[in-house]
Automatic annotation (TrEMBL):
Record keywords: ATP-binding, Nucleotide-binding
Entry superkingdom: Bacteria
GO molecular function: ATP binding; ATP hydrolysis activity
Listed name of the protein: ABC transporter ATP-binding protein
Gene for this chain: sufC
């Protein structure tokens, strides 16, 4: 599914990723953990095509197709989704209009029929209950007046509605309480399947109590320095990143 081969990324003339290789097969959830400044968010931005993140070497493919020549909207239409660490507010844009427009734009790009207003309304109300957002929240401008936790719930609602082939959660657990963490776990676990993959980027093991990863990778100084099972996350929670930072130096 997602394959990253010897990826080097430069941002403002500074190399951040330094030969990162990673493969997430279809049907699996992989977690990326690492200290501040290790390149975790840079990795998510590079996959989804953020401007000014220059690929100087390597490749990123999804289902065998290189993403590097695709614009961000083309990558989204191919099935990529990024849950932002700091979701934006969009004043003046109605939440349901925003999500329906995004959904139909992706469907159109894939040659699919647009979703009808009635079907969309039925689906978004159903999924809003799962993520804990009221009808009143859906009627507001997008993310305007939302708490940090509510914005993360809105990210999960978008992912549930768009049903991506591959979802990337970039520190979605930041600032979330236990109930919200459980909600994230419920959404991801509900969406898990043989044709979909996830990459969960986090500092802490606590999210992984609810989103059970198949593999955990440690990122330090722009490279994957360790890979293994969920036990790695528990080890990091207990002992920290020191030994990995030293080995990457």
């Amino acid at each position: 599914m997602l394959k990253i081969d010897d990826l080097h990324i430069t941002v403002q003339e500074t190399e951040i990723l330094k030969g990162l290789s990673l493969e997430v097969p279809a049907g699996e959830v992989h977690a990326i953990m690492g200290p501040n400044g290790s390149g975790k968010s840079t990795l998510s931005y590079a996959i989804t095509g953020r401007e000014d993140y220059e690929v100087t070497q390597g490749d990123i493919t999804l289902d065998g197709d290189s993403l590097l020549e695709m614009d961000p909207n083309e990558r989204a239409a191919k099935g990529l989704f990024l849950s932002f660490q700091h979701p934006l507010e969009i004043p003046g844009v109605a939440t349901m209009s925003f999500i329906r427009t995004a959904l139909n734009a992706q469907r159109k790009a894939r040659g699919e029929n647009e979703v009808t207003a009635a079907d969309f309304l039925r689906a978004i109300r159903e999924k809003a209950k799962i993520v804990g957002l009221s009808d009143e929240k859906l009627k507001r401008p997008f993310n305007v007046g939302f708490s940090g936790g509510e914005k993360k719930r809105m990210e999960m609602l978008q992912m549930a509605m768009l049903e991506p082939r591959f979802g990337i959660l970039d520190e979605t657990d930041s600032g979330l309480d236990i109930d919200a963490l459980k909600m994230v776990g419920e959404v991801v676990n509900e969406m898990r399947g043989p044709d979909r993959g996830f990459l969960v980027i986090t500092h802490y093991q606590r999210l992984l109590d609810y989103v059970k990863p198949d593999r955990v990778h440690v990122l330090a100084d722009g490279r994957i320095v360790e890979s293994g099972g969920p036990e790695i996350a528990r080890e990091l929670e207990e002992h920290g990143y020191d030994k990995y930072i030293q080995s990457a130096a």
